[in-house]
Structures are given as structure tokens and as C-alpha cells.
Amino acid sequence: MIKYTKCINKILSSRKLAIYLIAGIALISVFGMVLPAGKKIFKSILFLILIFCFLVNLIFCTSKQIFRHMKKRKFIGYSIFHLSLIVITIGALLTLGFSMNGYLVVGLGEIRGDKHENYAKIEEGKFFNERHGRFNITLKDQTRYFKGEKIKYTSSLINIGTNSGNQYTREISYGNPVTLGNLMFYHHNSGYAPLIEVKENGKIVMQSYVIFRTEEHPNLVTFSLPAGKLPGTNITWQGVFYPDAAVDKKGNYFNKTQLLRNLLLKLSVDIKGKSTPVVLKKGQTLAVGGYEFKFEDLSKWTGFDVIYDPGRRVVMFGGVLMTIGLVLMYLPLPQVKKKKTEEF
Amino acid sequence: MVKTQLIIFWVAVGLYVAASVLYIIGLNFKKDYNRLAVIFTTLGFVANSVATGLRWNQVGHFPYYGAYEVYTSYAWGLALFFLTAQFFKPSLRFIGAFIIPISFIMIGIGIMNSTEMKEIPRTYFTFWLGVHIAFAKLAYGSGLIAAALSVIYLIKERKSGELGDEEKVPHWYDKLPELKKIDYLSYRFVALAFFMLAIMIISGAIWAAKAWGRYWGWDPIETWALVSWLVYGLALHLYRTSSWRGRKMALITIGALILVVFAFFGIPLIYDTAHEHLTVSLLTTIGQSQA
Fold first, then answer.
1. Measured distance CA(A29)–CA(A166) in Å, rounded
2. Rounded CA gap, A48 and A93, in Å?
3. Is the pLDDT of residue B287 over 80?
4. Could B195 and A176 be called an inter-chain contact, meaning their C-beta atoms sit closer than 8 Å?
5. Inter-chain Cβ pairs, chain A and chain B, closer than 8 A
6. B204: helix, strand or coil
7. Within a 13 Å sphere around the CA of A204, how many CA atoms are in the beta-carbon half?
8. Phi-psi region of A331 (alpha: psi -120 to 50; beta: other; left: phi over 0)
């Protein structure tokens, strides 16, 4: 039994095994970049097994190193460095298994809870197990900062209520996130939500703020509603919102600036197979094929990336350890310097 | 302002070319021209610094955005790294014959790109980006010197195999250190490159976590930087544990540099990455050169 234990210990703490594992991780990383499967390789079972073997090998090698060279100052740096690799790998596995990354759209004045169905897009770790309900978020205000006639950046004032009863009011903008423990909120994008009222034969069938998607192109930002069914009706619609509409020589609408000056809503409504344009200024009503469309008001929305990552702090701690280990490894020791002079 | 920068960059190129010629002549002739070459390198570095400083003054931050700024500042970083290394170890001066030509080529590529000032994304306004860029330049410098030493090792090793007993030894052969010393120096710079790359990756991860909410996203440039770091780590392990010395070490070091160069400059050409500010300008350079 002891013989087998020693044999297993020898294999698992082998530096040659470490070399093969490092080479394997490097190769698979290259494949992950080159092959069409791409990033899926980094979530595959094979890669996870490799990382796990690397972690086990690291633990055995580092333990052997620490016990063997405990009193030698030279090896403190090496030991801390390899310990940091263990910590970082554990943190990375925590992120892979237990993290959540979701995209949440919140309208001005709206309260959105941390529920799976509220996220427009969501990615969860294998062991996240739908552990939602940690917070709710309210968009209290949104301010756009202009450089000339173009939006430089947008900042949002949000209120986050946690399930422990705490309330946090923070300002958030792109590149300026809000962190609460393992929860992080990032300002992803923002846009407009016109209040549209639709009546059918004098009866209101829809009256709500409609999220128009913001799309950023070089030198151009558009706010569009993709084609879809108008709720409560059998008609389909799509549209574009213009914050500062102007007409070119060909009669096409475009945005003169990004300032809110000449608001215009251009819809394309498909009623019984017939497509009809509906162009509305704010406050205007237009009747088309038995329906009445009204552009009542304008609101705003902000899209947030909500990230729950229990591995993040572990990895960051590992990064700090690694830096300390590297500095200690590379600090010149008097006896090493003397040896070099004698050799060369 | 831009015209003045370009003129001074051309002056730097001229001085670096003169220095390169002196390093190469110094290797091939009996007389030692290395000191004079270092003087020209220093003058070129001063010109490079002035032009970089003017650009810094123009844009309001250290030049790191856009191909023009990236290449010229990398050339500056490389020259600084070489001058520092040869100051502490004068025996390294001969590497100038390999390193300084790269500096003037990088300035040349840089100044062929657009000098237009671009709007920097708000996520770039962070202390960690400065750390990331500084250590990227140091990593590139260390890797380049390690690879240059490896190339020299291979050339000298090949020549020593060709030399007969009575054959006259060329001047450059004698001027280069012993193979064992070149190998050891290369290993030391590989170790330095490993350290610099590690700090670069760590600071990049912190920046990414603050900017985009994830410290690692398997972005192409992140992944290639990791692969480069792993290869340097592999080289160090092989040197210390499996006695991979000499030619084997030289080949792996050169391979690692190719990965580093590809990660920094090649990846943005092929993939959409977080370092996309390099892409368009490089394609413009290729397009211009073909026109």
C-alpha cells in the first residue's frame, strides 16, 4: 500500500508531468483560437480534465517543494509563485462552475428583479443552479454627456436593493462599474423608449414604452425596432426612432445630430399583408387601416451586464500572490551574484 | 506639430541606422565600434524620446493608441531596454546589431500610419492600462534580446562546427562571448520575459475585470499572450529540470518570441479583439504600400 502511495505521489509530483500538462494547455489554447469550434473548446470536458490534472500536479509539486526546501530563502519566491497558480486555478474553476453573466434592460423608473426570465441574455455556470433573487435594480435617472452634437457617454443613476434589505444608490457609466461583493453591474448600452399608443376601432390595444435597440456604427448611431408582432394585435411592425430627424434630397430620413431636437418615429406597419409607413412626430396621431398610432412621449432605458462571479476575488488574490512570488524569485541574492562572477 | 514629430522620428531613424551599421562593422572588423554605436543609439533614443514627448503633449496621454503611437512607442521602449541592459552589462553591446534595426523598422512602420488623433474609449482611462502597457514593452524587449542571443548562439554554434583546426577565425566569432555564456544570458532574459509577461497578463486581467466585468474572456490576444507565457514557462522548466540547453533552448526561445510578436501585432490583424485599435491602421499601411 505504501509502495503504491509512493508511486502515485512520484507520478503526481513529477516535473516531467508538469511540462507535458503545460504543453497540453498551450496546445489546446492554440486550437481554441484556430479551430472553428473556438471558445467551446475552453468549456469542453477535455480542457477541464487537463486543468484539473494540472491543479493536482501543481498541488503535489508545490507541497513537495515547500517541505523539501522550507528553510531555503531562495525557494520562498518559487513556492509562493506556485501557490498563486493553485489559487488562480481554483478561482478560475469557481468562475467556470458558479458564475452568472446576464444582460438586463431597465427602463427609466422601472424596477427589475434578479429573475431568470428578466434577463435578455444569460449565461450560467454549470453549478449556478438558478440561484437568483439576490437584488432588484431601479433606473432612477439617465444623463447624456455630449461632445459637440455627438453623445460622448451616458451615465445612469441606479438604486440596487439587495435581498438582505440594503439599498445602494450609485452612478454607473461605461467603464465605471458598480461592485457589491461578488455582484458587479456594468453599463453596457442605453437608448430610447418611445411611448406608443395603438387603438383599434377607438379601443386602446397597446400603450407602452417600446424599447428601441441602439446600434453603433462608425460615425453613426441608430435606434431601431426589429420586425415583430404588435402586442394585442395581428399586425407586424418595425421602426426607427430619430432624435433629430432631417430629410435628405432623396426624401430619406436621417439623424442630423444626436441631440434631442426634432423627435420623429418612423414605423412600417403590416396590416393584412399590406405594408404602410407611419411617420409620427411627438404628440402626433395617425390613422392607418382601422388602427390609430400615437407617439405620446419619450423615455430612456439602460442595458446592464450583471455579473455574479465568486471566483473573481480568489483569482485577484492569486494575482497578488503571484506578483509577490515573482518579485521574490527575481530579487538578486548575494550568494548567487558571487557565483556568477566566479563563473564568468 | 505632427510635421515636427515626423521630422524628429526620421532623425531618430537615421541615427539608429548609423548605430546599426557601426554595431555590424564592429562585429566584422578588429576595431571596436561598439562605444560609438552606443553613442549613436543614445542620440537616436533622445530624438525618439523628443518625438514621443511631442505626441504625448499633443494627445494628452502616453502614446499607446493607434498603430502610429504603438509602433513608435514600442521602438522607444525597445531602445530604452537595450540601453539599460548594455549599461549594466557592457558585454551585451553586440546585440545592438540585431535590436536597433528592429527599432528603426518599427518607427518606419509607425510613421507610415495615420497620425490622426482618435477618441479613446472610456475603459482605457485607468492606471492598470499604464502598468499593462509598460510591462508589455518590457516583455517584448526581454523576449527580443533573448531571441537575438539565441540566434547568435545558433550562428556561432554552426560556425564552430564548420571551423577546421587551421582555419582563420572570423573577427565576429572571437568578438562574441563563449557559447555557454550566450546560452546562460539567453536563459536569464527568458526568465525576465516570463516575469514581465506575467505582470502584463495580471494587470491586463485587472483592467478587463474593471472595464468589461470579466478578468478572462479567452479573447484571441489574451489567449495568445497566455500561450506565449506558457511557452516561456516551459522553456524555464526544461532548462532547469531536463537540461534543455544550447540549441534546444535557442530554438524554443526563438519560437516563443514569434508567439509574442504574433500576439502583439499579428492577432489584431486577424481577429476582433480588445486591442482592435491596431487593426485598421495596419491594413491601411499594407494597402498604401501596395498602391
1. 42
2. 9
3. no
4. no
5. 86
6. helix
7. 6
8. beta
